[in-house]
Amino acid sequence: MNRNAFTSTPVAAVNETATAVVLQPTTTVQSFMKTDSMLNLRILLALATMALAAQLNAQLTRYEQTLPGKGSKCQINGTSSIHDWKMETPIIAGAFEADPNALQGAADGKVAATASVRIPVRTLKSYNAKMDEVYKQHMEEAKFKNITYKLKELTAKKGELSSLGDLTVHGVTKPVSIPVKIASAADNMLKISGTTKLKMSDFGVTPPNPKIAGLGEIVTGDEITVEFEWVVVNKK
């Protein structure tokens, strides 16, 4: 028997191998514990965020759309080469959530609130049949049936409120900031009002330029002014 078979591996090498065998499980356990701690921290942060959101939502009062004739109105004002024009609707669907006490004299900063608004395109009317027809064609009403607005942020500054949200018109969504006023009304209602200027072309809508016998081509201005009064009610 070859005696070198038992002595060919140095003692130091054997010791290094043994040490590696001992250290490897320890390193793995430490790595696992570190990963586990990070996971627990993420879970705790997620739970804390959910709890805070639930607490804020619990403090909000929900207001919903009122029936037509209760005061809601959206009006679009525009210009053309022959006269100014307007279209309007009494239908503003959706819901608004906020703490009504926090809306009055709110301190500067963000105000907890949510809002989702929908206006059916077909309900906007000028009460001129030809103009309404041209409007629906350019808005592609058959394809894009609603104008929507989803509130992302409501802020207060020096007693004034400003809303920032996503406005979707003609299938195109743009962030829009609108100064708003929110006032209490009778019978558990709120009236939310505001005015903003927009360009039709920003939403992929080509300003109508119809040709009318005896008048020639009518050029419609790209810029419009949107005014609204949205009356919502807490149905409890």
Provide structural commentary.
The protein is α+β, with helices and mostly antiparallel strands and 236 residues long. It has two domains: 4-56; 61-233, Lipid/polyisoprenoid-binding, YceI-like (Lipocalin, Beta Barrel). Helices cover 28% and strands 40% of the residues. The protein is built from four helices and 13 strands. It has helices at residues 4-7, 11-58, 100-103, 129-139, and strands spanning 61-65, 73-78, 85-89, 93-98, 109-111, 113-120, 146-157, 160-169, 172-185, 189-199, 211-212, 216-217, 223-233. The strands form two sheets. It has an eight-stranded antiparallel β-barrel. A two-stranded antiparallel sheet has the order 11-12. The chain is globular.
Evaluate the radius of gyration: 32 Å
What is the residue-mean pLDDT, rounded to a whole number? 84
Annotation field: number of helices: 4
> For this structure, what is the CATH class of the largest domain?
Mainly Beta
Strand content: 35-45%
The parts where pLDDT drops under 50 for at least 5 residues are 1-25, 54-58
Sheet with the most strands: spatial strand order: 1-4-6-7-8-9-10-13
Net shape: globular
**Assembly status:** single chain
Descriptors:
236 residues; alpha+beta; Lipocalin; eight-stranded antiparallel barrel; two-stranded antiparallel ribbon; 4 helices; 13 strands
What's the gist of this structure?
With about 240 residues, this protein is an alpha+beta fold.
Any chance you could write out the topology, listing elements then pairs?
Blueprint: H1 4-7, H2 11-58, E1 61-65, E2 73-78, E3 85-89, E4 93-98, H3 100-103, E5 109-111, E6 113-120, H4 129-139, E7 146-157, E8 160-169, E9 172-185, E10 189-199, E11 211-212, E12 216-217, E13 223-233
Antiparallel strand pairs: 1-4, 1-13, 2-3, 2-13, 4-6, 5-7, 6-7, 7-8, 8-9, 9-10, 10-13, 11-12
